[in-house]
Design goal:
The chain is rod-shaped, with a radius of gyration of 34 Å. Helix 1 runs antiparallel to helix 2, helix 1 runs antiparallel to helix 4 and helix 5 runs antiparallel to helix 6. The protein contains 10 helices and 6 strands; from the N terminus they run H-H-H-H-H-H-H-E-E-H-E-H-E-E-H-E. The strands form 2 sheets. It has a 3-stranded mixed sheet with strand order 1-2-3, with helices on one face. A 3-stranded mixed sheet has the order 4-5-6, with helices on one face. Strand 2, helix 8 and strand 3 form a beta-alpha-beta unit. Pfam families: Cation_efflux (PF01545), ZT_dimer (PF16916). It is a multi-pass membrane protein.
Length: about 400
């Protein structure tokens, strides 16, 4: 099992590393082409967009770092794994998008206030702007595809960073086209519109990452589906304290389930395993499930935490059984902690079948002795004939 998990982590990191390196390579080539084309075609907007593309290498470096360390398996210091490193990376990329948007908006505002600073590019600049749009849009679709395949919010964030580059390149294209047609102000207006769009994307990425870092629950619709799947599991009669959260592109849940109070420990454990297996198999994002077994709804019933445990209770019961000879032959004592009391089941082996009235007398004596312990609730006595 552990070898499989290591293999999955390696495959995931390799995919993230590959797509990020491809993105970095494309960004370098496009930025060099934009800057060179801007100088040659006398387009200040194209040069600025080239420098913006070159700055994307910072986010690519963040993605590589987070992908490498976030894909590591759990260890002693990080028992839940390292996926939150990816979450931090997505927050950083979201903040970077906000910075890009503010930069575009500020530049556009300056040009609107000072029309003399608007450029007069050559027609060749349109070709370089179109090349950048095609390259960045292709990079966006490629990154989104890999992000969905490996379930990485960090890659999704970087994909939207690539899409923001497309927007900025569209602004440049529109600005150059408008300048060539004589409408020089269109560049600045389009830039402001795109800046607002990028602010929205960056804000969503940053806030979703922060929500994950503070353990925000899954969407209500997803929680409702989880709740129904648990209730549909055989042996589960109720649930409470269903808590969910995200870590990277994965979901985690823990829940208290209500089972029959008289079943064995092993059967209750088997029901909890069935709940865990069902959620992991039916919900693709679900990575880990912790199930707590409750014999009663501890949110409504009286608490049992203050009741004595087995060793203390048996010591007190034996004091009460001291004068009852048949109590020395007890085979087993079953304890059920329910509704603020300890309910007891006594199993007594007998060498031969007693008369009905004699058995009733034994039972009354044992029950009366047990009832002298204040915490004891119901007492049931079982006789097994043929015992040693």
């Amino acid at each position: 099992m552990s070898e499989q998990k290591v293999s999955d982590a390696d495959v995931r990191y390799a995919a993230m590393r590959r797509v990020t390196l491809v993105g970095a390579t494309v960004n370098v080539v496009v930025s060099v082409a934009q800057i060179a084309g801007g100088v040659f075609a006398q387009s200040q907007a194209l040069i600025a967009d080239g420098l913006h593309t070159l700055s994307d290498l910072i986010s690519d470096a963040v993605v590589l770092f987070a992908a490498k360390h976030g894909s590591q398996d759990a260890d002693e210091d990080h028992p839940y794994g390292h996926r939150r490193i990816e979450t931090l990376g997505s927050v950083f990329v979201g903040l970077a998008l906000l910075g890009v948007a503010l930069g575009i908006g500020y530049s556009a505002g300056e040009r609107l206030l000072h029309p003399a600073t608007l450029s007069n590019p050559e027609p060749l600049a349109l070709a370089f702007a179109a090349l950048a749009i095609v390259a960045k849009e292709s990079l966006y679709h490629y990154t989104v595809y890999v992000a969905r395949r490996v379930r990485s919010n960090l890659l999704r964030a970087n994909a939207w960073h690539h899409r923001s580059d497309v927007f900025s390149s569209l602004v440049v294209f529109a600005g150059i086209g408008g300048a060539l047609l004589g409408f020089r102000y269109l560049d600045a207006v389009a830039a402001l519109v795109v800046a607002v769009m990028i602010v929205r994307i960056g804000w969503q990425l940053a806030t979703s990452g922060v929500r994950e870092l503070v353990d925000t629950a899954l969407d209500p619709e997803d929680v409702a589906k989880l709740r129904q799947a648990i209730l549909d599991t055989d042996g589960v009669s109720g649930l409470h304290m269903l808590r969910t959260r995200r870590m990277g592109g994965e979901a985690l849940a823990d829940v208290h389930i209500l089972v029959n109070s008289r079943i064995s420990v092993s059967e209750g454990h088997r029901i909890s395993e069935a709940v865990e297996q069902r959620l992991l198999s039916e919900f693709e994002e679900m990575k880990d499930v912790i199930v707590h077994i409750d014999p009663e709804d501890d949110e409504r019933e009286a608490a049992c935490a203050t009741l004595p445990q087995r060793s203390e209770l048996l010591a007190r019961l034996r004091e009460q059984w001291a004068d009852i000879p048949i109590a020395r032959r007890l085979e087993n004592v079953g304890l059920h902690y329910l509704n603020g009391h300890v309910h007891i089941e006594l199993f007594v082996p007998l060498r031969e079948a007693p008369e009905l009235e004699e058995a009733k007398t034994f039972a009354r004596e044992l029950k009366a002795a047990c009832k002298r312990v204040p915490e004891v609730g119901e007492v049931t006595v079982y006789f097994r004939c043929g015992g040693a």
